[in-house]
Amino acid sequence: MTTWRGNPWAILMALCLGFFMTLLDLTIVNIAIPSMIDHLRASLDEILWVINAYALALAVLLITAGRLGDLYGRRRMFVIGVVVFTVASVLCGVSQGPELLIAARVLQGVGAAILMPQTMAIIIGVFPPERRGLAMGVWSAVAGVATLAGPTLGGFLVTAFDWRWIFFVNVPIGVIVLFLAMTAIPPTRITRRHRLDVPGVLISTAALFCLAFALTEGERFHWNRIIVALAVAGLVLLAIFLDQQRRAQGAEPLIPFALFHDRNYTLMNGVSVAISIAMIGTFLPLTLYLQSVLGMSALKAGLTLAPMSLTSMVAGPVAGRLADRVGGKYLLMSGLVMYAVGVGLIAIVARPHSDWPVFVIPLVAAGLGVGFTFAPLGTLATLSVPPEVAGAASGVLNTNRQLGSVIGGAVIGALLQNRLAAALAGEAERRAGLLPPQAREPFLDGFRQAARGGLEVGAGQTGVHPPGGLPAEAARRVAELAHEVFTQAFVTAMRPTLAVAVVVILCGAALSSAARRTVRNGVPAGR
């Protein structure tokens, strides 16, 4: 056990498994939405809160949790986070109603927020800069696989067992992580008493909650006065927080501003936001397309996306090793461009009647891009971060990534809804002339109502029903045309949303071009 404790690779295994759980639960729930609605007799709004409650708790608490690790011990905070997350997963799985499930998801998000920033911070402390690239490559490969494998694993669990198993699957993983953490990770030595920046915690929590809530719920509530007021309040509180932090720099602030004196760290925060927006911009429309348009089961949709996660898993450690040898800047730029190419190819090959083989090459290209993105990004971001503020650095980086996901969800969701409404109207107009005269106006009106319903769509659902009194053959024709309108309209609407993802990721590539280059053994170089 002596050789096991402090072993860098044993420590990395514990950190990666813990990180895997938290990221898996950001995506695994999406594919179980129909099953949860049926079994819990819940509304779509309630089930969307099952997703958003976790994301909100995570986004709001990451900065505070990262700093707590710096001040009171990273292993201690990591273990607490694992315990809270695992217990909350059990509570999610046994919930008998949407309200209890939402509450358990909040607790799960708290656990994830506590443990997540400790993973990168411990890696910074354990691995020196010249070996950090490979460690970051493994860590980022796990992150990529967790994010992308959610639909695949979730589809299997929902199909083979029940929606509750998407939460129960965390329990054995949590037990293993807890054992590894207690036996492999040495406790952090606290050499002096620390004081938490309580005003900073309170102000930042309120600011992040207002911003994240407004962005998450804005489209659903049509950006009413309350949502706008929350967004404005969040921005005002953020400004107050930054001023409070400026005045607290001489003590122990929540965010040490010295972190942003490093150009690479500052730039990588921006690149992280771009990547998160782009990934949401890819997977939100794509998962809806696979199930709602192509009629795939949850399992088949997950398996269709599997080439991306498998390729990313293989590419991540390779990219990390290369980052140690040749530097991360150009690897990162190449990965971002490759990801943009993969997403662009998906937009080109997607049709109303496409089959899974046409997506293999685009998804492999995107997977290579993801694999060659996260490891160099982590290496560049953390190269010059002092170990004593590694938790704060990780908390800020992960918070920006999570806020990028929230922004991406709001922007992409709104764009997809807007384009879908326009495409439904246009496609319905083009096909209405093929129907009997008495069916045309109800057909068009049905799609106007469906467009106003937003993204509440599922396989085979168009929101349009044949009017009564039609002969059977005419009613069948109405149903066929309604399906054609929906599938073609969704594909038409999906393309501009994927184009936005491509543009955002290319902006990230342009931003990364300004990073300082690193050479062998992690030594910073010039441009």
From TrEMBL:
Transmembrane segments: 12-35, 47-65, 77-96, 102-127, 134-157, 163-184, 196-216, 222-243, 264-286, 330-350, 356-377, 497-515
InterPro entries in UniProt: EmrB-like, MFS, MFS_dom, MFS_trans_sf
Keyword Transmembrane: yes
A GO cellular component entry from the record: plasma membrane
Record localization: Cell membrane
GO MF: transmembrane transporter activity
Membrane topology designation: Multi-pass membrane protein
Superkingdom, natural source: Bacteria
Record has Transmembrane as a keyword: yes
Pfam families in UniProt: MFS_1
Record Gene3D superfamilies: MFS general substrate transporter like domains, Multidrug resistance protein D
Main location as per UniProt: membrane
Domain Major facilitator superfamily (MFS) profile residues, every copy: 11-440
UniProt KW keywords: Cell membrane, Membrane, Transmembrane, Transmembrane helix, Transport
Similarity-based family: Belongs to the major facilitator superfamily. EmrB family.
PANTHER family for the chain: MAJOR FACILITATOR SUPERFAMILY MULTIDRUG TRANSPORTER MFSC
Protein name, UniProt field: DHA2 family efflux MFS transporter permease subunit
Organism: Bailinhaonella thermotolerans
Biological classification of the source: Bacteria, Bacillati, Actinomycetota, Actinomycetes, Streptosporangiales
